[in-house]
Amino acid sequence: MNIRTDSAILIGVLGGMGPLATVDLMQKIIEETPVSRDQDHVPVVAWSVPQIPDRQQALAGTGASPLPALLAAVGQLNRLAVSHIVIPCNTAHHWFDALATESRAPLIHIADATLESLARTVKNQVQAPSKIGLIATHGTLAAGWYQQRFAGLGSATLAPTEQEMATLFVPGCYAVKRGELQQGGALLERLAQRLVDRGAERLVLACTEVAPALAAVKSRWLDVSIDPARALAQCCVRQWLSSERRL
Amino acid sequence: MNIRTDSAILIGVLGGMGPLATVDLMQKIIEETPVSRDQDHVPVVAWSVPQIPDRQQALAGTGASPLPALLAAVGQLNRLAVSHIVIPCNTAHHWFDALATESRAPLIHIADATLESLARTVKNQVQAPSKIGLIATHGTLAAGWYQQRFAGLGSATLAPTEQEMATLFVPGCYAVKRGELQQGGALLERLAQRLVDRGAERLVLACTEVAPALAAVKSRWLDVSIDPARALAQCCVRQWLSSERRL
Prior knowledge:
Two copies of one chain form a homodimer.
Chain A: E1 11-14, H1 19-32, E2 44-48, H2 55-59, H3 67-79, E3 84-86, H4 96-102, E4 107-108, H5 110-123, E5 131-135, H6 138-143, H7 145-153, E6 156-158, H8 162-177, H9 181-197, E7 202-205, H10 210-216, E8 225-226, H11 228-242
Helix pairs in contact in A: 1-11, 5-7, 5-11, 8-9, 9-10
């Protein structure tokens, strides 16, 4: 028995990178949904199997490719007839095109979701920020997804220096993956401060470990930050609310 | 392509009742797992599709049975070759036997997990608590799963009165389902206080909405509480750590 029709909404979360970021996205989907009872919530199936080769190491040429495991996960989600697939891991978007080609269900790109969120914010102001600070892995920075989209808004991107990556971003990110949110948050808070000091008017937290870590240390920079995981959650909720054939 | 062998651990979460309780269980599985990197975490697939008829209403005879939707969810999880199924909703355990019969993967009962947790706590003390306060839905209270297990430890059960159910438990629980954790937490805190006033030495929070709500109001009764969702998370982690064939 299958309780849904093929055109119904069922959000597939390709998660586990890390599992905390998966839970964080699911929590944000709940927070962003207007509900009065359980049944109003977005239907989600989350594949959170963290035994995927490290994405940062693969892109640095020091580890195996995660692509076979990612393709397997996409296959499993499609077996459940998901309507859309989202990936709460920016770095994994390096393999986005390869996954989208193999998936029956369309994938929603986290940078597209972020740009929608940023564009809505900008619409309410006189103009786009002239400089946007981008906190992301080497892989995400090198891919250029965010920088290209920011340029389309007329905004320049401020990225961390190589030294900031080595001393603040990378150790901060791996501290979060070990569950040490306070330690990770303190390092990432210092990185946010550096970008603001260099003129960033907004920050885009384009690694899904960053927003939970800054929240853990109650960072004052959250107020000027765009959280791509929340933007992705909002995209999922919009799909659900606009669906005429809810379950 | 399937990335796991049939004997590998993959925890299937039959969730969505409500979705917050599902996220809460996933968060607790993460917290309870000793890790140094993403890949050490428990592999989980969560079916969080909240379009399941209300369990409390079904048991009260005022709503449709959730069994067809629950069976469909069990079927979907089995299609992904999960090794175990857990249900982060106490009331849904009313249909546990019917689901277990139809499932290839074994189901872990939340009251068994709770008893294991309670037995470990008791082992470290001189004797079992003489009175355990049980916060649960009418359906869970009527089923007797917890009371029978507490009696096996030599502990009596203190349940809320019918008036406390109507004025504190039910409105508190539905407030959480609407996302109003502060309001729900305040009501459930008062219920916890009543049970302690009547002599409960420990509280078992046998409705998965209760622990997150008490946490939201920083309830002082959390220190004497057993959270069945955390006990269930610990069971999942033990399965994972004892597996010789991790992914």
